[in-house]
Amino acid sequence: MIWLYDDYAALSDAAAGIFVQQARQAAQVKGWFSVVLAGGHTPQRTYQLLAQPRHRDRISWGQIHIFWGDERCVPPDDPRNNARMARQALLAQVPIPPSQIHPIPCSRSPQVAAEQYEEVLQAFFGDQPPRFDLVFLGLGENGHTASLFPGTPVLEERERWVAAVHVAEQDMDRVTLTAPLINQAAVVAFLVSGASKAAVLREVLEGPSDPNRLPAQLIQPAGGELHWLLDREAASLLTRKA
Ligand code: 6PG
Predict the structure, then answer these.
(1) Residue 98 to residues 107, 134, 184, Cα–Cα distance (Å)
(2) How far is residue 15's CA from residue 43's CA, in Å, rounded to a whole number?
(3) CATH 3.40.50.1360 fits 2-219, yes or no
(4) Would you call 33 helix, strand, or coil by DSSP?
(5) Which among 127, 131, 102 is positioned nearest to 117, based on CA atoms?
(6) How far is the centre of ligand 1, averaged over its atoms, from the C-alpha of 73 (Å)?
(7) What residue ranges do the domains of the chain occupy?
(8) Which pLDDT band holds residue 171 (cuts at 50, 70, 90)?
(9) In terms of DSSP H, where are the helices of 3-99?
(10) Confidence (pLDDT) at 106
(11) What DSSP string describes 176-188?
(12) What is the mean pLDDT of residues 80-94?
């Protein structure tokens, strides 16, 4: 489902609304809510809005478990660290038990970090299917999402839930959830803003299937909902807008 918003602020407010709605529903039905946060810049405003009383006070933070879709293997205080961004924008402002915040610690070996994070997820889900209630994702200008980068071996992964990725063009190691894991989620919401994403968004949504070049096309939640939250600039090249 494509949702079109006038601008980044409106898109961010809608994304915050989805978080609140899904969190309240899951907490009421199951007693807890598992959400996967995206990194990069786009979701930052959404996280800041969730820390504002009008959203924050509608969420039972004691029932929330926070995970990440990917992490850059840089020191925790590095401005590029995804967990650092989310802590500053949201997590330091809300009463969520620290034990319910599950960052991907990968400032050492990406492979070890991936194995350890998979153990964290297996411990969390236990004998239940690994079905996150909500996954936020962004879209890179080269068609990547999370750290599923074009042409990387992780795109072929069918078993593992978490994998290490070396992103040659950034000379950076990363750890990412795999497409098979993301695709088990109940709700996946891409947040895509700005003219710089218009061309790749049209290719991902309207172009031929080419997931090795456009990994975001791998995200097709089997038993879940897929939402694309777009602002007008990002959607400007789409022929089908809603
Ligand atoms: C990351 C993100 C990545 C991001 C896209 C879009 O760690 O880099 O998980 O997948 O969502 O690169 O990033 P922007 O929102 O900054 O454009």
Answers:
(1) 20, 19, 26
(2) 8
(3) yes
(4) strand
(5) 102
(6) 14
(7) 2-219
(8) very high
(9) 8-30, 44-50, 53-56, 82-89
(10) 87
(11) EE-HHHHTT-SEE
(12) 98
Nearest ligand 1 atom to alpha carbon 82: 7
Q: Name the residue type at position 95.
A: P
User: How does the average pLDDT of the chain come out, rounded?
Assistant: 97
Using only C-alpha atoms, the chain has a radius of gyration, in whole angstroms, of 17
Provide the H-helix boundaries in 160-211. 179-182, 198-206
Element (H, E) at 70: strand 70-72
Digit-coded pLDDT (tens) for 15-58:
999 999 999 999 999 999 999 999 999 999 999 999 999 999 99
Amino acid (one-letter) located at 236? S
Determine whether the shortest distance from the Cβ of 42 to ligand 1 is under 6 A: yes
> Is residue 1 classed as helix, strand or coil in its secondary structure?
coil
Q: Reduced to 3 states, what is the DSSP secondary structure of residue 56? A: helix
pLDDT for the residue numbered 105? 87
At 241, the pLDDT band (50, 70, 90 cuts) reads low
Q: Which residue has the tokens 């909500």?
A: 134
User: Who wins on pLDDT, 119 or 105?
Assistant: 119
- For residue 96, report the distance from its CA to the centre of ligand 1, in Å: 24
Please give the model's pTM, rounded to 2 decimal places: 0.98
Q: Which tokens hold the place of 12?
A: 């961010």
CA of 27 to the centre of ligand 1 (A): 28
Q: Is 174 helix (H, G, I), strand (E, B) or coil?
A: strand
Give the pLDDT mean for 197-219.
98
Continuous segment of H or E residues that includes residue 23: helix 8-30
User: 70 in ligand 1 pocket by Cβ < 6 Å?
Assistant: yes
Output the six-digit token pair for 109.
């070996």
Amino acid at residue number 27: A
- C-alpha to C-alpha distance for 95 and 104, rounded to whole angstroms: 21
What pLDDT, in 10s, does the model give residues 158-170?
999 999 999 999 9
